[in-house]
Each structure stands twice: as C-alpha cells, then as structure tokens.
Write a structure and sequence with these properties.
- With 290 residues, the chain is an alpha+beta fold.
- It has two domains: 128 residues, Probable inorganic polyphosphate/atp-NAD kinase, domain 1 (Rossmann fold, 3-Layer(aba) Sandwich); 136 residues, Sandwich (Tumour Suppressor Smad4).
- The chain is 20% helix and 38% strand.
- It has six helices and 17 strands.
- The longest helix has 14 residues.
- The protein is elongated and about 60 Å long.
Length: 290
C-alpha cells in the first residue's frame, strides 16, 4: 500500500501548451478537484504568473499534464521549492508520469486523502566556466550533454572526477546523467539502467573513437569536470534545451544538486521495473507499436 502523505489542499494544475487537448483536460481536472473542496489554480506551464506563485510556495502540489518533457520542466520549477508533482500522461513514453489519461478521475480521491508516497529523484547541478568566470548554471533532471556542433567531427573532452584526471574522450558527445536520465539519451547510447532512487552520476560517451567505450557510474557525491579541447564547434545542452556554444578551454562541472524532484506515486516501488519492460520491447515514438 502507498504511504500516507499530507493531503494537498492548494493545487496548481498546469498543461503543456504544445500538447493538444492538454489545457482542456487541465480544466476538467481542475473542476473535479474543486468539487472535492480543493483550492485550485489552472494554467499553462509557461504561465509566468502561475509559475511565480509556485516558486513563492503558494501550492502544496502541482499536477502536470503532458509527457516526459513536461515532467522535466515541472521538475525544474518545483524541485527548488520542494513542491511534489503528479504527472498525467498525454505523451508517448510516460516514464516519469504516474497516471494515464483515462485514470486520473479514479486517482484524485486517493490524492486528496493523502494515499500516496513521494519518490525523490536526484537532480544535477551544472555550471559553465570560461577563464575562471561562471557563465551559467542549470538544475537538470535527466542529463547534461557536451557534444559536437553542426560539423560531423568528434570533440575532444577531458574529464576529471573529484579533481583527478579520468580520461580524454574523443566522441560525438559525453553525457553526464542522473539515474532518471539513465533511461533517456544515456540508454540510447548504450548506458546501463539505474534505479531511480540512486544518487550517482552516469558518464556515457556517444560514438567514442578509440576512447573509453563503457559507461562509468560515479560514486555518490562525486563532482565531474568536463573540459572542451577542440578546434571546431562544441555545444552544451542541459536537459534537451537549445544548445549553447562552447569554446576551447570551457569547463562544465556537474554534481548532485541539493534539490530533488518529488514525484507522487500510487504504485509500490516495484513499478519501475514493471513499466520498463513494455517500453523496452516496443518504442511508442515510432508510431508502429501495438
């Protein structure tokens, strides 16, 4: 049985604006919650006023309607203020969401009675440095990727862990992923699947050339530093965001964040492996799955 958590009374319902029908479904979820006595605000995930209310601690819980990309964006918003997230799947995979579109009406009474548990998902805190100056900071739930740009040439990336040189990778990219991200790009690149409750960083090279071609799981608490050594374009992409240009000598640091994403779960912890098998056998993004 799920753990009992505090019943939420103030809830934000947010829909991905790029997912058709998501806002209409969000309004239906809002009406159902209000009929149970909850205080609810409804809007799009890019609604700045609603986002500001979330960041100011105005809600006990956020319900996100969309796919796994929606859950990433919700995690970026909610993790720093420790607002739990319930995902309603309107995407394809649904690795991170908890409730399917035809299940949310049955799930809401359990949610409002506190019949759920909270699953902590580690995030990575990443920074970009150039000549000793910090150019940017990111909190990511899946991964950071340092990769080649538009030229089809591998990049040279020097990696160190906790200040000790690890290796120079000559590859299309180097991924530093969370356990959550181990089922995303890192999995496609041949990396292992890590249980979501771990707090390790996974390093995976993409198409390595005469370099380490095995994924490396770093000890909990480790910090990885990636230095760009290349004479052509290299880019940085945090959690699939638009790539940022890097220069030779730029350094990207990554370590476990002090923040964790909190996902609402009605299922027991074994759900992860039960849900994994169907996804592994048939890829829904192809449109050919049955």
């Amino acid at each position: 049985m799920p753990d009992h958590s505090l019943p939420p009374r103030s809830i934000a319902v947010m829909a991905n604006p790029q997912v058709g029908e998501a806002y209409q479904q969000a309004q239906e979820v809002t009406a159902a919650l209000q009929s149970h006595g909850a205080t609810v605000s409804c809007g799009m995930l890019n609604d700045e006023d609603l986002r500001a209310q979330v960041m100011d601690g105005g809600f006990d819980l956020l319900i996100a309607l969309g796919g796994d990309g929606t859950m990433l964006r919700a995690g970026h918003l909610c993790a720093p203020v420790q607002v739990p997230i319930l995902g309603i799947n309107m995407g394809r995979f649904g690795f991170l969401t908890e409730v399917e579109l035809d299940e949310w009406r049955a799930a809401l009474p359990r949610l409002l009675q506190g019949e759920y548990r909270l699953e902590k998902r580690m995030m990575i805190s990443a920074s970009q440095w150039r000549n000793g100056q910090r150019l940017g900071d990111w909190e990511v739930l899946n991964e950071i990727v340092v990769s080649r740009g538009h030229l089809v040439h591998p990049v040279h990336l020097e990696a160190s862990v906790d200040g000790r040189f690890l290796s120079t990778f000559v590859a299309d990219a180097l991924i530093a992923a969370t356990p959550t991200g181990s089922t995303a790009y890192a999995l496609a690149a041949g990396g292992p699947i890590l249980p979501p409750e771990l707090r390790n960083i996974l390093l995976v090279a993409v198409a390595p050339h005469l370099s380490i071609d095995r994924a490396i799981v770093l000890a909990e608490g480790s910090t990885v530093n990636i230095t760009v050594v290349t004479d052509h374009q290299a880019v940085l992409s945090p959690d699939g965001q638009p790539p940022l240009d890097l220069e030779t000598g730029d350094q990207i640091t990554a370590c476990a964040s002090e923040h964790s994403a909190l996902f609402v779960r009605f299922q027991d912890p074994g759900y992860f492996y039960r849900n994994l098998t169907p996804h592994m056998s048939q890829n829904p993004s192809t449109g050919n799955h049955r």
